[in-house]
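re the bet — no i am not wrong, look at it urself. input seq straight from the record:
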Amino acid sequence: MKKIFILTGEPSGDKLASKVISKLKIKEHDIQYSCVGGSHLNSLGIKSIFDLKEITYIGFTSVLLNIFKIRNKINKTVEEIIKFNPDILFSVDSPDFTLRVAEKVKKLNSKIKTIHYVAPQVWVWREGRVKKFKKFLDHILLLFDFEKKYFDKENIPNTFVGHPLLEQEINNKIDLSSMISSDKKIISIFSGSRLSEINLLLPILIDFIEMMNKKFNDFTFVFHATEESKDLIKNKINSEKLNNVDVVSDENIKSQILEKSFFAVSKSGTVSLEICKAKIPSIIIYKMNFLNYLIVKMLIKVKYANIINIINDKEIIPELIQKECNSREVYNSVVYFLRNPDLMKKQVNQCQKTLNSLENGLSSGNAANILLNYIKNQY
């Protein structure tokens, strides 16, 4: 029986990996799996060798403070992969963890095919990494077509598969009336999937909600959480006695709440593509500790944090980063949009144009086909 080891480093990667593997399971039943993953892969019956929370760190200082733990996890993961002896190591995103593991695995067993999904953002920073990838990666699956030139230059096999968040999905409709009153407008809030970023952003978002509640009485706020972060957010909301706030983690419910939303406040990341796809106006927020911010500012090559803004080389979705990421600025930005519906419509239209240029509605299926071809030795 053929074997695949799936390697993720955070909940968003776990979600992306599960989309690909669910497609692969339809195409080929006779594959044995193991993984480092979370609730999404677990729902497919694939057990993780350890809890994803144990390796989810954000920022340089967090990594430095936990360097020995991380190194130990990398070595332990490599050991488990070698023991499992897969035909394919399928790594997804989180390059500072997954690609370190892949490099060590390749050195120990060159027969294992290494396929990485979600290329490291070498167009943002550290372009020189590409040369190193050639030594241990057999194939890279790209989310954006413009990334190809970076890997073609080094003759690294790569395929543009498209972005999985832009796939057309058919969800079972759920009656949300028991959860959200029909006379309330929904503001969706995305505070991130890593506990470290949630801890930084949650106090700001709660203050923002309290400010909104003093001014308006026709909004309800919904936090889009992961299974891993749901309880943390709920406990904080309950302790603040906020009555018009919900926390949801079910993917189907989250998707339908987003579609019914009036506005969204989101941490910087790929979730902004989901928001754009749902045609919901939004703002982007992000904050990290000061030392991390200084290091990032020195290293990055792009002006913007959000992919929509990066592609257009202008700010279509407002970004409140670092010192601007405070409850007052978030409140002012949201209220400004709410009072200017033409601006909301303009943003949605500009985002749609950008998405149309990126559209490839078969991303997970394309990625699954490449894995299948490697399994069948057709590469």
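see?? The chain has two domains: 2-168+361-375, 185-358. told u. also The first helix runs from residue 11 to 27. so pay up
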